[in-house]
Amino acid sequence: MSEFWLISAPGDKENLQALERMNAVTSKSNLSYNTKFSIPDFKVGTLDSLVGLSDELGKLDTFAESLIKRMAQSVVEVMEDAKGKVPENLLANGVDLTSFVTHFEWDMAKYPAKQPLASVVDTLEKQLAQIETDLKSRTAAYNTLKTNLENLEKKSMGNLFTRTLSDIVSKDDFVLDSEYLITLLVIVPKPSYTQWQKTYESLSDMVVPRSTKLITEDNEGGLFTVTLFRKVIDDFKTKAKENKFTVREFYYDEKEIKREREELSRLLSDKKQQYGPLLRWLKVNFSEAFIAWIHIKALRVFVESVLRYGLPVNFQAVLLQPHKKSSTKRLREVLNSVFRHLDQVAAASVLDASVEIPGLQLSSHDYFPYVYFHIDLGLLD
Predict the structure, then answer these.
(1) What is d(CA 25, CA 323) in angstroms, rounded to the nearest whole number?
(2) Main-chain dihedrals φ then ψ at residue 77, nearest 5 degrees
(3) To 10 degrees, what angle do helices 13-28 and 328-338 make?
(4) Contacts of 257 (CB under 8 A, 6+ apart)
(5) Neighbours of 16 (CB within 10 A)
(6) Which of 12, 4, 26 is nearest to 335 (CA)?
(7) Torsion-angle region of residue 228: left (phi > 0), alpha (psi -120 to 50) or beta?
(8) How far, in Å, CA of 158 to CA of 251, rounded?
(9) CA 61 to CA 205: how far, in whole Å?
(10) Residue 344: exposed, middle, or buried by beta-carbon count in 10 A (0-12, 13-18, 19+)?
(11) Which are the contacts of 64, defined by CB distance < 8 A and separation ≥ 6?
């Protein structure tokens, strides 16, 4: 599974024994894989400041999770032709996300633990805010380029009534620079090919004999040329429509066709040039944002544990990885039972709820006798 439960309990003898019982039961019943989660000794400050940080960290946690999900989705969108390789590009410090979380160590160089907690949180906030700002600008530029390219490529798709013809026709298909003659393009339904060949010369006066040629066709019909005198264009269009032949409005402009082809070539080149740098930036900064997010989880465990269990600071954090979704209800019952002594009323009410509600769903408002946080690595779900 791609989810983890991060809990903490007081570090006294009774609760360390409770943690040992939890490890024994969950291991024996194959409910979860448990590891210690190391959190450094921070400067506690005042309890009032911790209450303020608790609320701030909650918001920062939500923001960080949203940011890395957006970054993961951006990787998917950029790697549109190689989506199978997306997971190998979503790493944290060069390792897969599960390995990073299960072997988490606080980064003292980036986030010095000797600084006041407010300073550490401020560093994390500024780092994530900068990543989000850069993400918006970089992906906006790339997506604009991608949209322009897709719009141009769409013109080459569709049926003969809507698609661009600049990549189909050539200069040789038209009579150009004539004061009197003009070449039109006519869409003829496939069942009417024979009718077209027999009647096009007589649809109007002044149609050049044997001037039609099939240029291309799709599932529904074909695109034919026909050359006639300019002064009978309107009459020819009317007669063609009566026979269910459609004159496609198109006039050969070599400069415009060249410009359109050059624009397509430029957009393809620009997209190719931006692809590598953008993907590298996403990989590096996804890693940075994810690492910051797990540090925020560690800070939340510390702050909530001090507020819950009091001073002096003495608690043990444990990371649990449920083995399968169906075992989470039983795992929750085990935890509530093992740590019931921390808060008899709360534990009893939650335990009752877990028995009554199939497939217990937890929300941010659930209360447990131990400190609890959820980490979901299903970033692309």
Answers:
(1) 14
(2) -70, -40
(3) 160
(4) 166
(5) 13
(6) 26
(7) beta
(8) 20
(9) 77
(10) exposed
(11) 124, 128, 289, 292, 293, 296
- 40-44, 76-80, 151-155, 227-231 — most confident range: 227-231
Residue 228 confidence class, pLDDT cut points 50, 70, 90 = very high
Instruction: Judge contact between 126 and 29, C-beta under 8 A.
Output: no
Average of per-residue pLDDT across 185-208: 96
Question: Which pLDDT score, from 0 to 100, does residue 20 have?
Answer: 94
CA distance linking residue 374 with residue 1, whole number of Å:
13
* Per-residue pLDDT, 380: 65
Distance of CA 158 to the CA centre of its chain: 28
Q: Is the pLDDT of residue 254 over 90?
A: no
Instruction: Identify which of 213, 174, 208 has the alpha carbon closest to the alpha carbon of residue 193.
Output: 213
Residue type present at position 304 = E
Token code pair at residue 2: 């791609």
In the prediction, which pLDDT does 81 show? 76
Convert the pLDDT of each residue in 324-373 to its tens digit.
887 889 999 999 999 988 875 444 444 444 433 333 344 434 668 899 99
CA distances from 272 to 258, 260, 364 (A): 21, 18, 43
pLDDT at residue number 80 = 83
What would the two tokens of residue 179 be? 């004061």
Q: 181: which 2 tokens?
A: 């003659």
Q: List the 371-376 sheet strands across, edge first.
A: 32-36, 315-322, 3-10, 371-376
Of 245, 147, 161, 151, the closest CA to residue 196 belongs to 245
Query: Comparing C-alpha atoms, which of 289, 275, 277, 299 is closest to residue 81?
Result: 275
pTM confidence score: 0.78
Question: Are the beta carbons of 365 and 330 closer than 8 angstroms?
Answer: no
